[in-house]
Amino acid sequence: MQNRSFEYLLLGVLALLWGSSYMWIGLALDTVPPATLMAVRVSLASLILLLVMALRGIRMPLDRHNWRLFFIQSLLNGTGPWLLLAWGQQYAGTAVSSVLNSTSPLWVFAISFLVLKRGQLPGGRQLAGALLGLAGVVLIIGVGGLDNLGEDILPQLAVFFSAALYGIAALRGQLFRGLPPIVPATGMLLCSSVVLVPLSLLTEAPWTLAPGPAGWTAAIILGVVCTALAFLIYFRLLITLGAMGTASQAYLRAGVGVVLGVVFLGESLDAETFAGICLAISGVVLINWPKGSRTTVPSSARK
What are the pLDDT digits (tens) for 244-266? Predict the structure, then answer.
């Protein structure tokens, strides 16, 4: 149980890192266009993880099979949803996009019945947790923010599909169970770099940009903390908490923005938002509630 408590702490850290990334993206986009920002983010993260691997004496696999898995994972867990969300949020609105992008635990639950064996399927408690967490996100965002749900249907479907890709990626991450978490994290980010760097060069002429100190700082934090460190934690949690448990951090992300606003910007916390945070946390607890047997951390997650 002590080991599992540490995994729950890591789940909260992951939600904090990815929840705060919206703030850093907003700062960087003032002087850095989106494709270039994503290219810098994944390239810097890849270099950091390669350096860590070199210092720890861990080598990347060289066979085609693993690199094909890394590339597909990069499309499902990085390049694909990032581009869909960047396009869809422009027209769907922030509130609707936040709710739709938080549905990845529901996607994990649904897709599990297509790809997992009977003994591995999530149960009713996980479904209740997923629904409870989504209700919490709706309250955090504000029910009124969903008034235009269903109007700009294509952008909203793009955001909704980005959550589906995250769900598929979480389930598919089980394929890397035999590898140290740093290996699939590095492989996935390198493959994302191969796509995003040429896209940036072809569409945004990054050599003409002149980001200020705030832009550079935001981009560095995004790459080192919100990407390199976050994906290390993510691939570890796929081993220790599973796809459904790892995906549940989507519900905690919504509350992170509120807490950051209260702590750093002096914003107030109303009753509806507080109730939403409580519901979201309750949903995460239900999803990750142990089935009765003690869970230990597999050796591959410790590397």
Answer: 899 999 888 877 777 776 776 66
How buried is 28 (Cβ within 10 angstroms: 0-12 exposed, 13-18 middle, 19+ buried)?
buried
The reply to whether the predicted model has a pTM over 0.90 is: no
How many Å apart are CA 243 and CA 219, to the nearest integer? 28
CA atoms of 160 and 281, how far apart (whole Å)? 22
- Neighbouring CB atoms inside 10 A of 116's CB total 15
**Start-to-end C-alpha separation, the chain:** 20
Backbone angles phi, psi at 123, to 5 degrees: -105, -170
Output the DSSP codes for 83-122: HHHHHHHHHH-HHHHHHHTT-HHHHHHHHHHHHS-GGG--
Furthest CA-CA distance within the chain = 58
Say how far apart CA 210 and CA 191 lie, in whole Å: 27
Measured distance CA(301)–CA(140) in Å, rounded: 33
Decide: residue 263, CB within 10 A, 0-12 exposed, 13-18 middle, 19+ buried: exposed
Structure tokens at 130: 């997923």
